[in-house]
Amino acid sequence: MDAMDARGLQAEVDGLMDGLRADLERLAAIPSIAFPGFPAEPVREAHGLLVGLLKDAGVERVERIDLPDTAPVIFGEIPPPTPDAPTVLLYSHYDVQPAGDEKLWKSPPFEPTPVEGGLRARGIADDKSNVIAHLGMLRAFKGRPPVGVKIVFEGQEEYGSPFDDYPPTDPERFACDAMVIADLGNLRPGTPTLTTGLRGASEVVVEVRTLEEPRHSGEFGGAAPDALLVVLKALATLHDVHGDVAVEGLRREEWTGTRT
Ligand SMILES: [Zn+2]
């Protein structure tokens, strides 16, 4: 995109902000809490609102993925404008955490309230404003972005959902060249932030065998090899005394990006 296009797009986005904010307020006013013990109707309402907003924004193909024991997943698709254009998958979720003790809130959790730098409501940062950011992109390009788009808006992310296991069973549907997972924070209000990497977690099973059979701890404790101690020792080698990762190939890199 050249500078002229970028300026034009910026002006377009500026012009869209009031409408996007109004839609965010509508969405944030719905207590779409997909947890056991909370009514399902608001989750369905948020789903319905978003489907309508996506269609209005030019997404012709909007489907729902219905799986057992979870809220419907919104799936939308805009085909690539040319055969060689890449496809970008946009992810976010329309459910929120329960509000907890409402007496502790400075304003009612499902009444979006202006505060310095933004709006306060339950789930407005996680993840409803990010849903609306995707919508804003579609509007800015009048529903015809320069890439193919796939949209995945989940409805039961906060509680956990069987949807986690679904994409590998239907890989073609989710095939794309890049994903924008809009479910992370900004450095500060007013500073749009693109996170390009996160550290992850792995679940591994480590099995250690030391002796063929058990030995009496009172007689052999400390002297005979102990499987638990071996595991502890191995875990302790993962970090050095400063807490830095000590595994070769997982070096700490100097951070050259923005600092908070
Ligand atoms: Zn989230």
Brief characterization of the structure:
With 260 residues, the protein is of the alpha/beta class. The protein has 6 helices and 7 strands.
Give the SSE layout:
Layout: H1 3-28, H2 41-56, E1 61-65, E2 73-78, E3 87-93, E4 113-115, E5 118-120, H3 124-140, E6 148-154, H4 171-174, E7 178-181, H5 217-220, H6 227-236
This protein binds zinc ion (ZN).
Zinc ion is lined by residues 93, 126-127, 157, 183.
Question: What does it look like?
Answer:
This protein has helices at 3-28, 41-56, 124-140, 171-174, 217-220, 227-236, and strands spanning 61-65, 73-78, 87-93, 113-115, 118-120, 148-154, 178-181. It is of the alpha/beta class. The model has no long low-confidence stretch (mean pLDDT 93). α1 packs across α3 (124-140). The protein is built from six helices and seven strands. The chain is globular, with a radius of gyration of 24 Å. The protein has a domain at 3-181: Aminopeptidase (3-Layer(aba) Sandwich). The strands form two sheets. It has a five-stranded mixed β-sheet with strand order 1-2-6-3-7, with helices on one face. A hairpin with a 7-residue loop joins β1 (61-65) and β2 (73-78). Residues 93, 126-127, 157, 183 line the site of zinc ion. Zinc ion binds at residues 93, 126-127, 157, 183.
